[in-house]
Amino acid sequence: MREDKKTAPEGISFRDGEQLSFDVGQPLSIHFTAEPGTIASFLRTGQVNAVKAADLCRITGWPFRVITRRIQYERLQGAPILSSPGCGYWLASDAAEVIRCADALQMRAKTQHATAAALRGIVR
């Protein structure tokens, strides 16, 4: 899905260590073409064009769990699929959107990690 190899902002990297590079406020320096049948092929650019998960389920005929797993897979393959709770999914329109989404995902991960640690503390 990714055609060029670049460097990622703020330590965002792919499994193989590659990173995407762009300046905040500048258009993405990535050439992305959604392959037919992918989740990305059903999405449009920019948060204002976000598609809710329920709509993706209706459009594709796939259950929610399949949608979320495919989104995770496509992201790991380089698809710039972004999301926000209550908003839905969309393709990144610029670097600032990517960074906001990555920051939100990182914050959720920290919160979940703290919750898991607290639960483990209960049984010690």
Task: Give me the secondary-structure topology.
Elements: H1 53-60, H2 64-76, E1 81-84, E2 88-91, H3 95-122
Antiparallel strand pairs: 1-2
User: What about the largest sheet?
Assistant: 2 strands, antiparallel
Class from secondary-structure proportions: mainly alpha
Helix fraction, binned, reads 25-40%
Shape, principal axes of CA atoms: globular
Q: According to CATH, what is the class?
A: Mainly Alpha
CATH architecture: Orthogonal Bundle
N-to-C series of helices and strands: HHEEH
Q: What is the spatial order of strands in the main beta sheet? A: 1-2
| Overall pLDDT metric | 80
Strand content: 5-15%
> How many runs of DSSP E, i.e. beta strands?
2
Which parts are unreliable, with pLDDT below 50 for 5 consecutive residues or more?
Answer: 1-26
How many domains make up the coordinates? Answer: 1
**Compute the gyration radius: what is it?**
16 Å
DSSP helical segment count:
3
Through-space gap between termini:
46 Å
CATH topology: Arc Repressor Mutant, subunit A
Give a description of the structure.
With 124 residues, the chain is mainly alpha-helical. The chain has one domain (9-122): Orthogonal Bundle (Arc Repressor Mutant, subunit A), CATH 1.10.10. The chain has 3 helices and 2 strands, in the order H-H-E-E-H. A two-stranded antiparallel sheet has the order 1-2. The termini are far apart. The model is unreliable at 1-26 (pLDDT under 50).
Can you give me a brief rundown of this structure?
The protein has 124 residues and is mainly alpha-helical.
